[in-house]
Amino acid sequence: MFILSLTYIAPIEDADRHMQAHMDWVRAGYDSGLFLASGRKIPRTGGVILSKGDRKAIEDLCAADPFTIHGIAEYEITELAFTTVAPGYENLRA
Fold first, then answer.
1. Residue-wise pLDDT tens for the chain (94 aa)?
2. Which of 15, 68, 14, 79 is nearest to 41 (CA)?
3. Which of 3, 14, 44, 81 could pair with 94 as two cysteines, CB 3.0-4.6 Å apart?
4. Contact 1, 77 (CB under 8 A)
5. 78 near 1, Cβ under 8 Å?
6. Helix then strand then coil, % of the chain, to nearest 5
7. What are the DSSP E strand ranges found in 41-92?
8. Domains of the chain with CATH codes
């Protein structure tokens, strides 16, 4: 399991200009089965994606995000292995 934390490194107006392309990229991540949940940080300084899969595939996917390509955001990728989860969330365990 991975937490993909993206932080804006460009003005929010630049992020807004590339938001549609980024959201198309996010949808493709869901379609591929790699993304489980995503959303904005509050305050709006970036976003977070909960993902599963192979680390190399995740790194390659993050490199292909229009936000990365256009210098809008940087990713921090944290790998984790859940050992205890609430009922209904068993699919999050390593």
1. 999 999 999 999 999 999 999 999 999 999 999 999 999 999 999 999 999 999 999 999 999 999 999 999 999 999 999 989 999 988 887 6
2. 15
3. 81
4. no
5. no
6. 35, 30, 35
7. 46-51, 73-79
8. 2-92 (3.30.70.1060)
